[in-house]
Amino acid sequence: MTTKFGVDFLKAVAGYMSQNGSHDSIIKCFRITGGGNGRCIGEFTVTKEHLNSHGGLHGGFIATLVDNVTTYALMSKESHPGVSIDLHVNYFQSVKEGDEVILNANTLRAGKTLAYVDCVLTRKFDGAVIAQGGQSKFVKITGGGEGKCTAEFTVAAEHLNRAGGLHGGFTATLVDMVTTYALMSKPCHPGVSVNINVNYLKPAREGDDVIIDASLLRAGKKLAFLECELRHKKDNSLIAKGGHTKFVDFQ
What we know:
Pfam families: 4HBT
Strand content: 35-45%
CATH topology of the largest domain: Thiol Ester Dehydrase, Chain A
Family: Belongs to the thioesterase PaaI family.
Largest sheet: 6 strands, antiparallel
Number of strands: 12
Helix content: 10-25%
GO molecular function: fatty acyl-CoA hydrolase activity
Organism: Glossina palpalis gambiensis
Order of helices and strands: HEEHEEEEEEHEEEE
Shape: globular
Number of domains: 2
Radius of gyration: 19 Å
Domain Thioesterase: 54-124, 164-236
CATH class of the largest domain: Alpha Beta
């Protein structure tokens, strides 16, 4: 496939993610062999660094693969990479050092706010299913550029705490991710977090529409400073306000 969001696009995204010095670099072994239009297919050879203490493929490494490769598949659908809401993996069979593994990720549905992507890992020599996983992602970006990012979402049951309000951890994740998107629109290296702070001012309930507005305050040679507000769409009342400092000197 040679379209704008085909195999070459997927290889470029994977190459950037595996070389940016973040946790994603642990999947640099992954080789993309096909995909586009919501799919990503690739393979890797299990090496010693991928193993757990029992000599099998590490569950955490598999989860990282599922996270990244499903995101690549989603991006090939011409969708924003989004923010993870749910990630799950079922483990069926072990593989050992030297085994070749194929990953096949597919976008099941990409709506206005949420996207659903699944992934299957199989052993290359016999097709045995090693693991099956998937994730749900919040994807609705409504505006931005030049150091800004605006997005919105509708609060769903999976976003709530036990008291029925918008979960503080989910709010913090949104602050983290949306401010990073704002930073990257400058353009600037996405960096690594030095500090994240969130002040929670008002609850949001299931069904509420929330607007997120992130902006870059300053980007220096080493540090970037960003802020973010979450507001009720119906009355513009402030739900939470956060800030994010990132180290960006990766030259």
